[in-house]
Fold this protein.
Amino acid sequence: MVDQLPNLGREEEMLKEMGIESMDSLFADVPEPVRMIGDLPLPDAQSEEELLADARRLLGANVALGDQPSFLGAGLYRNFIPSSVFQLVTRGEFLTSYTPYQPEVSQGMLQAMWEFQSLVSELIGMPITNLSLYDGSTAAAEAITCAVRVHNRKAEQKDTVYISELTPPDRVSVIHNYCQGAGIEIKKLKHDNNGCINLESVHEARGSCAVYVEQPNPLGIIDEGYPSIKEIIGEHTALIVGVQPVSLGLLEAPGHYGADIVIGEGQPLGSPITGGGPLYGIFGCTKPYLRLMPGRIVGRSIDVDGKEAYCLTLSTREQHIRRHRATSNICTNETLIALMGAMHMSLLGPEGLKHLAIRNMAACTHLKRELSSIESINQPHHQQAHFNEFVVELPEQTTSCLAFLEKDGIVGGFNVSDWYPEKSNQMLLTVTDQTSKDDIDRLVQSLTTWTAEVTA
């Protein structure tokens, strides 16, 4: 047992051990103007009954997602998830599991994650997938650093990657954080006024380590130029494609048009939108990237008795203990959330996923058509095909429109100026299979009223 100092409280005991006279001395380096003087403004002690009543009152001020028409997406999407997913994933053997290290006691969980990998592999058209990453942004950053490890140039040359100029700033920030310490230079690929990639700018990326684009792109556009990128950049530059997984029920899998690494935000499959997470990232690659890819892989093998067995494979110990030597510092994954994605995919099947994608795209097409009747609202990329979402140009600032919609009981779209400050009158409208015809009618009516007021 640790010897206790006599007649001293815990606070005094710790201060004495540190050689500090008082708590004020401990925080002497904190500027006085920012110090809090006095007690915390907490209410008096409450009984359990009173606490529950207060909690219900506070929660009652929230509006649940689905209680109002919502057209907000920009990376997270509300799709119908069968109730069985939530019932199954709360079983104790799933809910209490971490990534299993002991295959002899974790065969069920290991098999479930092997199934996840197999489903994702088929979905994105890649031969190899891992056990998921934290989210789509970290998956993108990990894909870029993985590509640099495979395609890094001579020591005297700076490693360079090209990313789409439409890549959202929050994702760019994560990519930058990963790349700055590694000395990787990030350059931008241009897009034309129609929102599609400028293939001439892609030629500049030839000889770099990697090119990163998203399909559909962040403006919801299905870019038909992407299948030409690999032919332009060649075999010695990695093509990394970020995907919205539900769209692959209709769109060609990137692995079928030359992608070397495919990543994505897995949330639309299996995971409801919550307060910022948890999410899970999809990551798949071709064989040249296998040994340098991040995360974990479950393999199916045969045990000493000749029986089918599952185990973690191709994972070096540096990933877990000697992290200064690791190819990646992602040492965990989002196993439980990824398992929800596997359950959702299994319940949908190929036809179900196609039907879900059709519902998403049909709702998007319907909203585009309905909004075309409002003369003062322009659709700058109306000639392009969209999935889930598209941009509209408004006759006034987007902030004004969003405030009006909120008063009308509608959650408006995403303010594009939050990504691109110069586009202060653009809004990204998102629909999914959960957007009803009545929701769309309400939005169109509300926007008609607002535009009449601001253009009068």
